[in-house]
């Protein structure tokens, strides 16, 4: 008897991405915060200790769990090479054209022989609200007929309530990281979709997400 293959979506617990919020199939919400990195090696020993202590204090003040995810990928150098090629087309000085072509060749040879990696840091902030219904409320829900509009309105109010709580947690994360010298920003819908696309399609090279300077 042949087994029926299941679609990939069945194994992914995500229902939708709405207003930058990941809505799970079980009703839970997740916000994805993009954070930049800081190089401790460039800091003095005193600055290193201060940064580590500040980050430790930040973690100890959290009353909810978070997940820190790091994506490491080979740097896509093609957009930079394309930029250089376009500059050659508008360059009138022959010597500069020659130097630019030699530089392009050097970059290609270097990136072909050396794996240059880029890392992206994410903080996943969760919120799950569980409502316990009484027996009376359960029976009422079983026998009371509700139209689709009422159900939709109730679901909308539930989402807004959860998102309000989640926004407060995201604010705590952003402020806590800022005290550590780390800039953080919550991803929007397109950025969240792009991040998950890269997770499920690791072999494809895409433009990376960057924080605004």
What do these coordinates show?
It is a single chain. It is built from six helices and six strands. It is an alpha+beta fold and 213 residues long. Among the domains are: 14-74 and 118-130 and 166-200, Alpha-Beta Plaits (2-Layer Sandwich); 76-115. Strands 1, 2, 3, 4, 5 and 6 form a six-stranded antiparallel beta sheet that branches. The protein is extended, with a radius of gyration of 24 Å. Residues 132-136 and 206-213 have low confidence and may be disordered.
- Count of extended strands: 6
CATH C-level class of the domain at 14-74 and 118-130 and 166-200 is Alpha Beta
Number of helices: 6
**Tell me, what's the shape?**
extended
Contiguous runs where pLDDT drops below 50 for at least 5 residues: 132-136, 206-213
Strand content: 15-25%
The value of Rg in angstroms is 24 Å
- Per the CATH scheme, the topology name of the domain at 14-74 and 118-130 and 166-200 is Alpha-Beta Plaits
How would you characterize the largest beta sheet? 6 strands, antiparallel
Which sequence of SSEs, written as H and E, runs from N to C? EEEHEHHEHHEH
Helix content: 40-55%
Q: What structural class should be given to the helix and strand makeup?
A: alpha+beta
- What's the N-to-C terminus distance? 58 Å
* CATH architecture verdict of the domain at 14-74 and 118-130 and 166-200: 2-Layer Sandwich
> What's the rounded overall pLDDT mean?
82
């Amino acid at each position: 008897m042949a087994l029926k293959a299941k679609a990939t979506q069945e194994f992914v617990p995500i229902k939708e991405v709405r207003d930058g919020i990941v809505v799970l199939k079980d009703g839970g919400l997740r916000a994805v915060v993009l954070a930049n990195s800081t190089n401790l090696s460039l800091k003095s020993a005193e600055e290193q200790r201060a940064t580590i202590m500040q980050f430790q204090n930040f973690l100890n003040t959290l009353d909810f769990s978070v997940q820190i995810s790091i994506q490491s990928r080979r740097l896509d150098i093609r957009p930079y090479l394309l930029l250089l090629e376009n500059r050659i087309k508008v360059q009138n000085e022959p010597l500069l054209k020659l130097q630019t072509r030699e530089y392009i060749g050097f970059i290609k040879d270097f990136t072909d022989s050396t794996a240059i990696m880029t890392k992206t840091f994410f903080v996943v902030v969760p919120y799950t609200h569980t409502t316990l219904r009484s027996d009376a409320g359960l029976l009422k829900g079983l026998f009371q007929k509700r139209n689709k509009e009422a159900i939709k309105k109730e679901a909308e109010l539930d989402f807004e309530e959860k998102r309000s709580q989640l926004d407060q947690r995201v604010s705590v994360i952003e402020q806590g990281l800022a005290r550590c010298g780390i800039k953080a920003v919550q991803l929007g819908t397109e950025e969240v979709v792009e991040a998950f696309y890269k997770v499920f399609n690791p072999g494809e090279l895409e433009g990376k997400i960057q924080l605004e300077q």
